[in-house]
């Protein structure tokens, strides 16, 4: 299986694309080139490389989120204030998810305490 995939209608080599999640992860020291290459080979399942790296324990969900934002900033050539707004919105969304999760835990613990 080739390591190339279509991006915006053209074939791209993810190891040569500086904005690929794999290269961004390597650049930040989150993953090695070998780990990324292994994940690319596993990509036959048609999962995004970021998801594969999280499943393998190479990246955390937080690191993947950071890389996805960085990728969007670089690909869209966003200005610093646009990037900051994107990051703020992402943090708000994650905080809502955490709050909802904690609320569910609190409800479960309350129910357990009553039994």
Tell me what the structure shows.
- The chain is mostly helical and 115 residues long.
- The protein has a domain at 1-60.
- The chain contains five helices and two strands, in the order ββααααα.
- The chain has helices at 21-27, 33-42, 49-55, 61-76, 80-114, and strands at 5-7, 10-12.
- A two-stranded antiparallel sheet has the order 1-2.
- The longest helix is centred in the last third of the chain and has 35 residues, at 80-114.
- Residues 1-10 have low confidence and may be disordered.
Give the number of helices.
5
Strand content: 5-15%
Judging from the principal axes of the Cα atoms, what is the shape? flat
Radius of gyration: 18 Å
Mean pLDDT: 82
Sequence of strands across the biggest β-sheet: 1-2
Order of helices and strands: EEHHHHH
Q: Give the % helix.
A: 55-70%
**Ends: how far apart?**
55 Å
Major sheet, described briefly? 2 strands, antiparallel
Number of strands: 2
Low-confidence stretches: 1-10
Structural class: mainly alpha
């Amino acid at each position: 299986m080739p390591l190339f995939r279509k991006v915006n209608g053209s074939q791209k080599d993810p190891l040569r694309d500086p904005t690929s999640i794999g290269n961004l992860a390597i650049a930040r020291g989150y993953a090695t080139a070998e780990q990324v290459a292994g994940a690319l080979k596993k990509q036959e399942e048609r999962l995004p490389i970021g998801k594969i790296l999280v499943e393998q324990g190479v990246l955390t969900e937080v690191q993947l989120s950071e890389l996805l934002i960085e990728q969007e900033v670089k690909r869209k050539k966003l200005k610093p204030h646009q990037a900051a707004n994107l990051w703020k919105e992402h943090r708000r969304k994650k905080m809502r998810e955490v709050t909802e999760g904690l609320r569910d835990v609190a409800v479960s613990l309350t129910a357990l305490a009553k039994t």
